[in-house]
Amino acid sequence: MAGKFTEDSGRFLSALGKIILLAAVCAVLGFGIVWPLWKWATVSSKSYTVAVLSVCALGVLWILIRSFRKVGAFRFFIRVGKIVSVALGVFFAAYFVLKSQRILGAAVLIVSFAVCYLISLGGKKHGVK
Fold this sequence. Notes:
Helix content is 92%, strand content 0%. It has 4 helices and no strands.
């Protein structure tokens, strides 16, 4: 009985030690990564903003290039057209609603989804989903 207890408590303490070690490693790595970024953002906010936006733009560009290679040019432009039509429609609908022109906002939203539907029809003629 005593051997079973020491074996179980040994496994428990081992697991607890691993959890504490993992938490300590995460804390050290988090501090090592976040603190310099925070310091950079507070000291030179303009360069930090440019760097972050550049990294985000490179990520979006990489995703677009990968998608272009994966699905082909025609399907890629059909998808981009649908995304752009809906995004612009939502943007301008929100703009008009905030300017207290709700009917115009609703009309823009309806037209943007109609354009998205028409783009989809053009793609289906060529076998694009």
